[in-house]
Amino acid sequence: MTALQAMLLLHGLLGGADVLLNHELLVRLPSRPGAAAEQRLHSLREAIFGLLFPSLGLFAWQGWLAWWPALLLLAEIGVSLRDTVVEGRTRRLPLPEQILHVLLFINLGVIATLLLQALPDWLALPSGVHALPADGPGSWLAAMGAISLTWSMRDALSARRLRLRASGARAA
């Protein structure tokens, strides 16, 4: 297991804890009026990680194709920054959520650092994508990716439902 894969696994566990504990149990975001924008961002983040986890768990990206995981990570950083602004404008975060977000941001920085350190070596190789062993961390990251993509669809439907509910309330 590489350090990058280990940090991705940690990120999946921390992110899953944030979703289940904070978004579902404490705040109940999927049914909270006014949470449509936040749910859209969460859906986008989960889709990004749904691609990033298996991309770095099951494949070695070389040459110009190594930009794929780097661009996914850059997109995630953009979504996280926007999500922080939206959350700050729409609700007060409970203490457990604040703590988990700090840990997630620290870990995201570690992931970015590890990826940026590896990127020059990956770019120097002939372009291609090569399968990594599908056992161990690769299979764990693939499973996390599948869970993340599934949850992304759930949050997208929640965002749509909240938006339709809000537009119906405005029309009434």
UniProtKB/TrEMBL annotation:
Q: Transmembrane segments in this chain: where? A: 59-79, 99-119, 139-157
Give the record's keywords alphabetically: Membrane, Transmembrane, Transmembrane helix
Would you tell me the protein name for this molecule?
A: Uncharacterized protein
